[in-house]
Amino acid sequence: MLKLHNITKSYGEVKALKELSIELNEGEIFVLLGPTGAGKTTTLKITAGLLKPDYGKVYFNGIDVTEVPPAFRDVAFVFENYNLIPIYNVYDNIAFALRSRITRVDDTEIDRRVNAYSRDLHINHLLDRRTNTLSGGEIQRVALARALVRQASLNLFDEPLSNLDLKLREELRVEFKELHKKYQSTIFYVTHDHDSAVSIADRIGIINEGVLYQIDTPDNLIKDPDNVIVAILINSPAINIIDCFLEGKTLFLKQNTPVYELTGAEMDKIERQTREKELQIGIKPRSIGIGKRKENLNFSAKILHIEYQGYNKVINVDLLGINIRILTNEKVARGYGDLLDINFPKKEVFIFNKKDGRRVRY
Ligand code: ATP
Question: What's this model's pTM, rounded to 2 decimal places?
Answer without folding.
Answer: 0.90
